[in-house]
Design brief:
This protein has 6 helices and 24 strands. It is of the alpha/beta class. The chain has 2 domains: 151 residues, Spore Coat Polysaccharide Biosynthesis Protein SpsA, Chain A, CATH 3.90.550; 119 residues, Hexapeptide repeat proteins (UDP N-Acetylglucosamine Acyltransferase, domain 1, 3 Solenoid), CATH 2.160.10. The strands form 5 sheets. Strands 1, 3, 4, 5, 6 and 7 form a 6-stranded mixed beta sheet that branches. Strand 4 and strand 5 form a beta hairpin. It is elongated and about 65 Å long.
């Protein structure tokens, strides 16, 4: 993340060593003035959770912490939450194979009183889910807030791609006019797509992407100012900003290519590859 892109109202707290899901909150506590509750959002989720509604519910409840919860068909990959009839959390089990079947899960969005931040030990990695939330639940100080919109965990590349493709189907993205592209797809402003290029379905282009004649791009996310040269084949990939893909190159499904990479002409990037700068 570049602070210059986020404006001058953002302060960044940097971990010298990984501190888990709780340690960074304690590390950054001194950067947040006042004594108001803190909203915490995991960086690997995408959702339409109503943060204002969540905060209002937390303030009205008088509890120490409120977790947004989301209903899924298989709770095993997530943190299973057990709620009573009043949405008090009476059980919290993080990523357990015992949690087979549907259930309410931790959606990774919280409102925490400053007292909860104070519970987090300093100077070491701390898991909110394993060390802090179970203690709060046992003391009846943890509530759930049921979210019924959309929610995606994008911690894996395949999940990130699936989320973008699903949002296209939902109509969250609109196809820009003036291009002959198989839908659903999204093309940002300032893109140049040559005659004879085949784009879509499920192509997502950030602004100023260029795709030359004879190229095929589908089920792929291209970041800003990426250029796909003539006769390339790109399918099921994520390609970072400013990357140049040389003429006649084939990029396989599940590949991730970093920003500012130059891929030589007629290269073959095998499925599932990671190409760094």
């Amino acid at each position: 993340m570049e602070a210059r892109k986020m404006g001058d109202r953002m302060a960044l707290s940097v971990e010298e060593t990984p501190l888990g899901t709780g340690g960074p909150l304690r590390l950054a506590a001194g950067m947040v003035p006042g004594n108001e509750p803190v909203v915490v959002v995991n960086g690997d989720i995408v959702s339409d959770i109503d943060l204002k509604g969540l905060t209002r519910a937390h303030m009205a409840s008088g509890t120490e912490a409120t977790i947004a919860v989301f209903s899924v068909g298989d709770a095993r990959p997530f943190g299973l939450v057990t709620l009573d009839s009043g949405d008090q959390i009476i059980g919290f089990e993080e990523k357990s194979q015992k949690a087979q079947g549907p259930g309410w899960i931790n959606a990774g969005v919280y409102v925490l009183n400053r007292s909860v931040i104070g519970m987090i030990p300093e100077g070491r990695a701390v898991s909110l889910e394993r060390e802090i939330f179970p203690v709060l639940a046992s003391g009846m100080k943890l509530r759930g807030w049921r979210h019924d919109g959309f929610w995606y965990d994008i911690g894996k590349v395949e999940d990130y791609l699936a989320m973008n493709m699903d949002l296209l189907k939902r109509g969250e993205q609109l196809l820009s006019p003036g291009f002959d592209i198989e839908q659903p797809s999204h093309v940002g402003s300032g893109c140049v797509i040559a005659r004879g290029a085949k784009v879509g379905p499920y192509a997502i282009f950030s602004p100023k992407v260029k795709v030359k004649s004879g190229a095929m791009v589908r089920e792929t996310i291209l970041f800003e100012e990426t250029m796909i040269d003539e006769d390339c084949r790109v399918e099921g990939a994520v390609i970072g900003e400013g990357t140049r893909v040389g003429k006649g190159t084939a990029i396989g499904k599940g590949s991730v290519i970093a920003s500012e990479v130059v891929i030589p002409e007629h290269s073959v990037v095998k499925p599932g590859s990671i190409v760094l700068n």
